[in-house]
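Risk register update: the risk of archive-format incompatibility is retired. Evidence:
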Amino acid sequence: MSIDISTARKVAHLARIAVKEEDLPALAGELSAVLAFMEQLNEVDVEGVEPMTSVTPMRLKRRADVVTDGNIQAQILSNAPDAREGFFAVPKVVE
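Archived output:
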């Protein structure tokens, strides 16, 4: 698929990119090259290949999903710059 100058102008407008008139032919060529590469990728046989999220097969460490009562309020509030009556204290932002 080949992109002409008017299509490149429209794409630049939709992308809110300022492109000078003399740069439009180069942009059209670059967009055409991108589309040609996408067409080339469509020719690759991927039958039976599972999608992957990483090039190395690994699983993230997971903790056990156990419901607890927490009971660490003092530890959490020790990180706060200001805590009062068991809650985080923040400055008033709306008068």
